[in-house]
Amino acid sequence: MKIPRRFAAISCLIGICITVMGYESEKAAYDLACRVAPRLADNIIFEEVAGVDDFYSVSSRNEKILIQGSSAIAMSVGLNNYLRQTLGTSVSWFASQPVELPEAIILPEAPITGKAVVDERFFLNYCTFGYTMPYWSWTDWERFIDWMALNGINMPLAMTGQEKIWYETWLSFGLSSDAILQSFTGPSHLPWHWMANIDHYAGPLSLNWLKINEDLQKQILLRERQLGMKPVLPAFSGHVPSALKELYPDAKITRHKQWCGFRGDDNTWFLDPSDPLYAEIQHKFVTLQDSIYGSDHIYGVDPFNELDSPDWSEDFLRNVSANIYSTLTAADPEARWLQMTWTFYNDSEHWTKPRIKAFLEGVPDKGLILLDYYCEAQPVWELTDAYFGKPYILCYLGNFGGNTMLIGDLGVVDKRINDFLEQGGDNKCGMGGTLEGLDVNPIMHEFMLAKVWNPELTPDAWVDLWADTRGAKHDAAVNKAWHILNDKVYVAKSLNGQGGLTNVRPSLTARTSGCANANYSYDNSDLVAALKTLLEAAPNIDSKAYRFDVMNLTRQALSNEFMAMRDSLTAAYNNNNTDKVKALGAQMESLLTDLDRIMATNADYSLKKWIDSARSKGLDDSEKDVYEKDARSLLTTWGYPGTVLNDYANRHWSGLISGYYKVRWSKFIGELIECMERGEVFDEADFRARIIKWEEEWVNSHSDATDLSDEDPVELARTFLKKYF
Predict the structure, then answer these.
(1) pLDDT given at position 22
(2) Smallest Cα–Cα separation from 281: which of 367, 175, 133, 424?
């Protein structure tokens, strides 16, 4: 293989003969450096060094930065730790956030080293492909894949583009093109179609959608494999289109019960893995997928996620898993089955310890990898004798629905990891993350991944390092602010639907509605103190990471203050003080306007960007309208108006605040005042019925969303502190 000039120079410099394998790994790491740190790339020597364990070392050689490692991923982790520890620089998972570098080349003062304590590092969740990624372009994916490599991920979930494979598979079994396309949900709801929770809703998809995502998946997989990752692709779990029942009436196909309030015609159908048709479909899907996307022989299969098994007997469960595995290995003899264990935690009433054991017994130990999905709440390995010997990966979830809530507890996560490493058994094989959406707490997710390479890392030491990457190398106030946050604010695990009261359907007393949950576990004055401390550093820092943190803390503080305002408004209403209700209502509306203003300073938290990205995937106005409605639905009503999942994916985004949450609250406040002026009791139930109708109208609308702002979040934060605190 001819070595490009830049690598030939490196090979002469370090005096070694680069093997083809080494060259490929080194080139992958170098190319990543060119993307995230272009000014530094030609001053870095990447050198692959063989070893039993995955490790990295960062030092210097001949006035250049030397990054050695056992693989492209290990060298990438070394690069990330050089950026963190030597330069005080963070790399965001968002493509819009630049990696800010000093002008001068700075060599590490002492070697920086790390060794992975587990072989597998998993990342992503089916839901992430709906709550964050459904409309991503290659630009978004390219940065995110780099972020995964920098954080040591070598087993990413790779679900994009699977509709193409299912389309071709179902065609081969006699279904019509229209029937197949109609079975798919809209783009943002596809994860729940993949998990067999719903069919049809917000669809259909078009052949155009299948094509653009097939092409995108090929780009994603190529880059992930170039970096040495082993992408997890799907396999057949038993979910079939309703039309298959008509074509194969003798097959063992049963209908799942209703899921989360969706209508009967959205219910999904399940083919028993013992039916001969199951093996035929599995073989067709796996071999077809391999011909288009290739395979790393790890397949995600989740037959009963948030769904009842047709039969809860231990024999049936054992046979289900045995048949799934046998059909998978018949299609790919090297196959390993990856399954999330969320359902074991979420439906513990049905998934008793004996039933879990029976289900796992159907698969050989080395044939199955389990994801312990929500370690901060309850590691399932502790309840199942470490999964009865099956390999498993400890995962931090940390986010539901893409909610924008300051949440997490480094101390709890640290304890979970330490217990896992000390007591988790010889079958523990990995660590990772299963977040439902990219959120506002990267400190939490990156801590989980950093502990893989430095298990002695403590929360306090991590906060010091994190603060350095957010500006503490330039001003000690940043470090102080982050320690206030760690000690006082990051004190609880994430729950579903968490967001400010701003995002809860209006009420005089409730702090929850549908899935929205405004409760938080700290004193807002502590958060305000952290924000004030952070702002002390403003004259000495001008970085995107710092401005993001100022925006993020201000957003949360305003949101928390809104709850206090609402409670005061309720007291004024109960005291029949109309003037005070009017004054407090005006303050609440003003706060919502200000909350929208500060979110408009960041492109990654924008309804306009979300809708524009959704519409960009359509070929014509009709298809664009379908995608926009789907995009609006997921963030708000989620499904049909008034169902249990309402506001599950609530979030503080510009445009969503001003055009949806503020409108709901303005209607509520206005009607409350009108009732008081007429001397009538406000009927909250009647208001709720009418606001549900308005929510449906909003989902079906095409109103303009807030444009981005060029206002300075630091100056806005100062203004809002004076105004509200």
Answers:
(1) 66
(2) 175
- Residue 562: CB atoms within 10 A of its CB come to 24
Task: Name the token pair of 124.
Answer: 């992503």
How does 695-724 read in b/e, with b if 16+ C-beta sit within 10 Å?
A: bbebbeeeeebbebbeeebbebbbbbbeeb
C-alpha closest to that of 266 among 327, 333, 208, 199: 199
Q: What is the mean pLDDT of residues 473-496?
A: 97
Strand pairing category for 55-61 and 64-69: antiparallel
Find out whether 494 and 400 touch, Cβ atoms under 8 Å. Answer: yes
Among candidate residues 183, 74, 64, 59, the one with its CA nearest the CA of residue 119: 74
Residue 391 in tokens: 């390999």
Cα-Cα-Cα-Cα dihedral sign, residues 641, 645, 647, 653: negative
Q: What is the DSSP letter of 496?
A: T
When pLDDT is averaged across residues 378-399 and rounded to a whole number, the result is 98
| Cis before 204 (ω within 30) | yes
Q: Is the pLDDT of residue 421 over 70?
A: yes
How far is C-alpha 219 from the geometric centre of its chain's CA atoms? 20
Q: Which amino acid is located at 89 in the chain?
A: T
Burial of 215 (0-12, 13-18, 19+ CB in 10 A): middle
If we measure between CA atoms, which residue out of 345, 348, 329, 347 comes closest to residue 337?
Answer: 329
pLDDT above 80 for 21: no
281 touches 299 (CB < 8 A) = no
- Give the DSSP H/E element, type plus range, for residue 110: none
Which DSSP category does 257 fall into?
P
Other CB atoms within 10 A of residue 456 CB: 7
Taking the CA atoms of 495, 501, 504 and 507 in sequence, report the sign of the dihedral they define.
positive
3 state SS of 160: coil
Q: Contact, 475 vs 541, CB < 8 A?
A: yes
pLDDT digits (tens, 9 = 90+) for 292-336: 999 999 999 999 999 999 999 999 999 999 999 999 999 999 999
Distance between CA atoms of 724 and 343, rounded to whole angstroms?
43
Six token digits for residue 290? 């391999």
Contact 157, 141 (CB under 8 A): no
In contact, 569 and 585? CB cutoff 8 Å:
yes
Q: Six-digit token pair at 79?
A: 């690069």
Q: Which residues pair with 157 in a beta bridge?
A: 232
pLDDT at position 612: 96
Q: Tell me the C-alpha to C-alpha distance, in Å, between residue 292 and each of 232, 236, 332.
A: 15, 16, 15
Helix boundaries (H) for 335-435: 342-346, 353-361, 385-388, 410-423
Q: Three-state DSSP class for 582?
A: helix
Q: What are phi and psi of 482, to 5 degrees?
A: -70, -30
What is the amino acid identity at position 72? A
Spatial separation of the C-alpha atoms in residues 21 and 18, rounded to whole Å: 8
DSSP result, 297-320: SEEE--TTTTS--S---HHHHHHH
How far apart, in whole angstroms, are the C-alpha atoms of residue 82 and residue 113?
Answer: 10
Neighbour count for residue 204 (Cβ, 10 Å): 17
Total-model pTM: 0.96
Greatest alpha-carbon span in the chain: 89
Tokens of 277: 């048709």
- The sign of the dihedral angle between the CA atoms of 639, 645, 647, 650 is negative
Confidence band, pLDDT 50/70/90 cuts, at residue 703? confident
Q: Please classify residue 107 by burial: count the beta carbons closer than 10 Å to its beta carbon, then call 0-12 exposed, 13-18 middle and 19+ buried.
A: middle
Residue 551 DSSP symbol: H
Q: How many CB atoms lie within 10 A of CB 583?
A: 14
Residue 117 region, left (φ>0) first, then alpha (ψ -120 to 50), else beta? alpha
* Cα–Cα dist 437/648, whole Å: 12
CB of 86 closer than 8 Å to CB of 593: no
Comparing CA positions, the residue from 402, 456, 391 lying closest to residue 430 is 391
Residue for token digits 């029976």? Answer: 358
